[in-house]
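SUBJECT: protein chain
CONTENTS: sequence, structure tokens:
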Amino acid sequence: MSDDTGSKLPSHLRARIGDLAGGRAQRAIDRAMNTTVERLGTGRIGRAAKLSRLALSGGRRALIDRARSALGAESQEGSGRGLALASEMLETFSELRGVSMKLGQMLSYLDDALPPEARRVLAVLQRDVAPMPWTAVREVFVESLGRAPEDVFASIDETPLAAASIGQVHRATLADGRPVAVKIQYPGMAEAMRSDLKNARVFGLVQRMLAFSTDTQAIMAELEQRFLDECDYRKEADYQRAYARRFAGHPVVVVPEVHDELVSEKVLVTDFHEGLGFYEWLEREPSEEVKQQAVRTFYRFYLGSFYMDGLFNCDPHPGNYLFREDGKIVFLDYGCCRRYTAERIDAWVELCKVVCQDDGLGLERAATDLGFIRGPGTYEPEAFRDLMRYLYLPYLTDEHLPKCVLRTVICKGEVLVGQVGEVQVAH
């Protein structure tokens, strides 16, 4: 991206966004990264008004693009429409933060949600929106810990390392010289979250962008619990300690240590680590062996933790990794996590077994137990069977799998509609 645009695009995003300079996308990126947000609007009506335009028209435009792509008819016109929508989202979400911004983060890495150019624009939301003024977050620090930052740290950088949906991170140094990362929540964030979660516009966006129709009450209840948990950094610290215990001494996974005496509801201090961001790492063109090692590490971190310890990190977006020069991967951000019971884990293991065995009746029973379907007569068995076998492809073959794209999976009423590769499975 050329310097004369006025943009301050960080190095870890240049490979991701660099050739999108010019036009509305460029202006939206510049505003999101360089326009100071003095305070968050927390009122339900005001936040709803800002989402109205996106909720009423944006979702429909996105679905048009997805439908065109699924039918193999994506055009420059459709791509441009998606790029305009992403620019509109970036401007709105970066101002609102909170739940709506988390939706934008999800859209930035979900393969089917938006055209590739649009996802690249929304990558800014992963960690690079404009920060709040130091005076505002410093006040949160003092109120939360009862001490001023200058009384706690030998030094602290008032310019944050990252700013995202819930808070921003500053680098500091302890009295003993140890570098730390200081995560401070935006003032008013919990109130803004609660306002968004009561807002039907937010759920309308989720439905339109991700194209599902299912048990909406259960989904919103789960989202509400996870999002509100993120507003309490004490809970995040508990999860981070649990992951640190699980991966203590691991040859690749690094979980930053939590400084227990510097944890409160709105402040979290952990060890600081240097490393390349996800896109920077890819720009270095790592070997196939190194990439496969990273994939195995991600699998063990996310699914291994779930199956072996009932721990699941629900926020795997690309802004949450640092790739160190020694080959280790630092996993950041434990705010959106959940624990599962042994019974629930066993149910997932059973589902995996019956998929691998291609046991139709067993699949129906396991999927009903997990709540995926409502029992016989409420779904299309062959479509569901094909979908599950696609999802479990790595378990079904020892061969190196070619890239296989699930073009569209839509829960439409009681019927699954989808297309796997070139095999039509819609009924």
Summary: DSSP finds 18 helices and 14 strands in the chain. The first strand starts at residue 155 and ends at 156. The two ends are 47 Å apart (CA to CA). Residues 1-7, 66-78, 401-427 have pLDDT under 50 and may be disordered.
